[in-house]
Amino acid sequence: MTALVITALALLPLLTPWVMHAVLDVADSAAWLGTDPQMAHTLSDRTVHELLFGPGTWQIMGSDGPPFYDPSEIQHLRDVRQLLWIVLLMAALAAIAILVLLERSADADEVVAAIGLGGAIVAIVVMVVGVVGALAFEPLFELFHRVFFPQGDWAFDPGHQRLVQLYPVAFWQVMAAALGLLMIVLGVLAWLGAR
Q1: Each residue of 130-175: pLDDT tens digit?
Q2: Separation between Cα atoms, residue 188 and residue 32, nearest integer Å
Q3: Taking a C-beta distance cutoff of 8 angstroms, is the pair 188, 123 a contact?
Q4: What is the spatial distance between Cα 30 and Cα 165, in angstroms, rounded to a whole number?
Q5: CA torsion angle for 45, 31, 29, 181 (degrees, to 10)?
Q6: Global pTM?
Q7: Closest CA to 183 of 141, 91, 120, 139
Q8: How far is residue 157's CA from residue 93's CA, in Å, rounded to a whole number?
């Protein structure tokens, strides 16, 4: 349960415009799209807004007239939205369960110790995955997609499909590093807080 809560707490700030815009700029998304940074920010903001708040149609019009995303990209975004909401819902339920256990458990110290252990495990696992990711990001990225999107609708052509132009590999490398760092910090804080 601690791992789910830490994952959600680390993930949510990364979806804010301030972080997204900075990472889009670092990944040079505007150049991939052949547009200016402000347009890349706007397109990303609309994409993330639909991811979080709906309606989940991604009927975003491109600056040149036709829809920005093709049907296969929209289907992948729907799958991502479903996975994101499952993780957030499970994290919310885990947080509630932790609070209930802390309130009603005969031995609250045991619950606190379990939270600390969970935080330590998260930090260690993320460090190990981070080392593997630093050495072999693309195979790890592919494995993640094969596990969580087994239907196979996640491989796109950066030559003409906008989803991987707006969010190129460099974007995901920076976001994965930021997510990992936040998870390590939160895991260590949970461990230290429990102690």
Answers
A1: 898 888 888 888 888 888 887 777 778 888 888 999 999 899 999 9
A2: 37
A3: yes
A4: 8
A5: -140
A6: 0.86
A7: 120
A8: 38
Provide the CB-side half-sphere exposure for 167 (13 A, CA).
Answer: 18
Per the DSSP assignment, residues forming a β-bridge with 67 are 61
Distance (Å, whole) CA 141 – CA 114: 30
Identify the helix (H) or strand (E) that includes residue 192. helix 169-194
Task: For 105, list phi and psi in degrees, rounded to 5.
Answer: -70, 140
Q: Which residue bears the tokens 């495990």? A: 121
Instruction: Give the C-alpha separation, 65 to 63, whole Å.
Output: 6
Summarised one tens digit per residue, pLDDT across range 39-60 is 999 999 999 999 999 888 888 8
d(CA 185, CA 17): 22
pLDDT in tens, 63-119: 666 788 888 899 899 989 999 999 999 999 999 999 898 888 778 788 889 999 999
Nearby residues of 25 by Cβ (< 8 Å), 6 or more positions away: 37
- Rg of the Cα trace of the chain? 19
The residues that bridge with 34 in the sheet, in sequence order, are none
